[in-house]
Specification:
63% helix, 0% strand
Length: 398
Amino acid sequence: MERTPVHQGQQRHHGVQGAGTGCTIGALIASGFDSGNLGSNTPGGFAPYGWSSVMTAVATSGIVFSFNGFQSPINMAGEARNPSRSIPFGVVGSILIAAVIYVGLQVAFLGALRPSDLAHGWHGLDFSSPFAQLAMALSLNWLMLTLYFDAFISPSGTGAAYMASTSRMIFAMQRNGTMPEIFGRMHPLYHVPRPAMYFNLAVSYLFLFFFRGWGTLAAVISVATVISYLTGPISVASLRRSAPDLPRPLSLPGMGLIAPLAFIFASLVLYWARWPLTGQIIFLIIAALPVYFWYQHKGGWHDFGREVKGALWMMLYLPAMALLSCIGSHEFGGSGLLPYGTDMAVVALTSLAFYQWGARSGWRTRYLEQEHDPAAVLALHEDVLAATKPLNPAPANR
């Protein structure tokens, strides 16, 4: 995979975010900013590895993962007092803040480089930890120490946020009947799904064991995250078509345009990840189908035929994307059957066709009917109350 050493270094040292970010940007700019590094006069010119490498870096170098924090407000939206105000503020705000931080870091890094550093072109940079090593080259030893310390501390904040949101997702999956009953249990004192948290921790260790190193782990997680984005646009379009009467605490205008564009862009990012990585991740996801069949068996195959028909678009979309990646242009690791430029147009048109198919595949399921069934809602609330009830309640005050 063709990437600049800067991108490789960012993969190994992605912890410059957090409290030291503003200090890093300010210190690097104050040390001497050469705006000529941002132009086309440097050896090799602007984007010397081509735009395909830029796109691949977006898909696999942790950039997608860096912006993934917008999911946390959505995952915790069920506890929001005013979703119509809180969710847009949290989602849009997190994306804008991340964009400002990372663009600022990139501009500061590029401007702080000395002309001698670029004498042999951008490929001459070989930083395993670019910001810290650049700070050391500029005699900013205090900044170097701060960056290394921050690289150790800052991931804990991300880990805490994802542990909370992911455990809630596992808890919700159990309520939908797609996870074992144990993951639906709440701690009697702290009211958190502790078994779901343990399961999330175990999966994290498995990923660290099989995908060692930040570069490999970032690529795998980024591609898998992009695939998870694909269901959002389909779901909102299908719900608006099959259940328009459901109460919607948050209603976004222009979704008829936003949803298909989001699906197309997510498909393009998946394609940019390059073959064979795209095919490997898609294979891992398809290989999990036996788990779905197992829970269908336990549930008595209720509406199985209809559910398979409704999910057929996704079951065929993933192999189709793997095939397009395999026969795509050389720039994205394919065989070259589809030339560069044409390949992305074919991916966009194919994904649009699958979007239309998926949006029309939904129907009003039994889960949606619970919204208007007081008995079902009451039963669900009783389950939650029973799961969160303390084992040894404290005596009432007298």
